[in-house]
Design a protein that fits this description.
alpha+beta; 7 strands; globular
């Protein structure tokens, strides 16, 4: 059994069923709206009208920030629950900010600009300052952030999309 963030027990097989599953993004016949399916969840991604979209959903970068922010908050919840700390809530705000002056190492590998993600983290509850600082430190260790910072290689899988 694996314990969820709310203390409920889930069978190990259920907790890992997302691994290796495809997330599908399907572009419609017109415009930029894309319908996304992840497991049993359907939602849309789009661009603002000014950029040729219909604003039917978040942009791809907004979805990336949502993935990062939700991973950070979940990581703080799991850690606080494991430690028995009184975390009432957490809020992570993120935004992208292009860098106009990438460092020399980045220029050497040919990157024209680096996108920075700025973050604000707020935790609520009867926490000590040391606990607050530790939770913010732990948020920076979430799996999505580690993957982004470590670099992600996208490879083409054999077979047709299903």
């Amino acid at each position: 059994m694996i314990e969820s963030g709310n203390g409920a027990q889930a069978p190990a097989a259920v907790a890992t069923t997302y691994a290796g599953r495809w997330v599908s993004a399907t572009l419609g016949a017109q415009g930029l709206r894309t319908d996304v399916r992840a497991r049993t969840h359907d939602f849309s991604a789009d661009e603002p009208v000014a950029l040729g979209g219909t604003d039917a959903g978040p942009t791809p970068f907004e979805l990336l920030l949502a993935a990062l922010g939700s991973c950070m908050t979940m990581t703080m919840r799991l850690y606080a629950d494991r430690k028995g700390w009184p975390l009432d809530g957490a809020r992570v705000q993120l935004r992208t900010a292009p860098s106009r002056d990438p460092d020399p190492e980045v220029r050497m590998v040919g990157a024209k600009r680096v996108t920075h993600i700025e973050q604000r983290i707020e935790v609520t509850g009867a926490l000590s300052e040391a606990q607050r600082a530790r939770l913010i430190e732990i948020a920076d260790r979430c799996p999505v952030k580690r993957a982004l910072e470590g670099g992600i290689q996208v490879v083409t899988a054999s077979g047709e999309a299903t």
